[in-house]
């Protein structure tokens, strides 16, 4: 068996389906006889291949701020103070409308 990284699903000549490498760095075992039929984007890896460790990235800005050690409560309080200092309009301005269709008459 040969270890291969498949970027997409692949149907071997015998009709067997080999699923793509999930996670992307996890090799799939394929018989030696099928190596010549592999798709061009497949990568053959050695027996000593180790799956690289993926570092999880923060999903939200709050998680990123926590990882950097930022004080979220202080940042939120400062943002609220800035919003309160901005003068608010009492009523929004109505959009101007044209004269419309002429009346039949």
Would you kindly provide a written description of the structure presented here, covering whatever features stand out?
This protein has a domain at 2-45. A hairpin with a 5-residue loop joins strand 2 and strand 3 (17-18). The model has no long low-confidence stretch (mean pLDDT 77). It has helices at 61-68, 72-85; strands spanning 2-5, 10-11, 17-18, 28-30, 43-45. The protein has a three-stranded antiparallel sheet, with no helix packed on it. A two-stranded antiparallel ribbon has the order 2-3. The protein has 105 residues and is α+β, with helices and mostly antiparallel strands.
Give a brief description.
The chain is an alpha+beta fold. It has helices spanning 61-68, 72-85, and strands at 2-5, 10-11, 17-18, 28-30, 43-45.
Topology summary:
Blueprint: E1 2-5, E2 10-11, E3 17-18, E4 28-30, E5 43-45, H1 61-68, H2 72-85
Antiparallel strand pairs: 1-4, 1-5, 2-3
Tally of DSSP helical segments: 2
Largest sheet features: 3 strands, antiparallel
Shape designation: elongated
As a percent range, the share of strand residues is: 5-15%
Provide the residue-averaged pLDDT.
Answer: 77
Strand order of the largest sheet: 4-1-5
Radius of gyration: 30 Å
List segments where confidence is low: pLDDT < 50 over at least 5 consecutive residues.
none
Question: How many distinct beta strands?
Answer: 5
Q: Give the CA-CA distance, first to last residue.
A: 89 Å
Class of secondary structure makeup = alpha+beta
- Strand and helix order: EEEEEHH
Q: Can you give the helix content as a percent range?
A: 10-25%
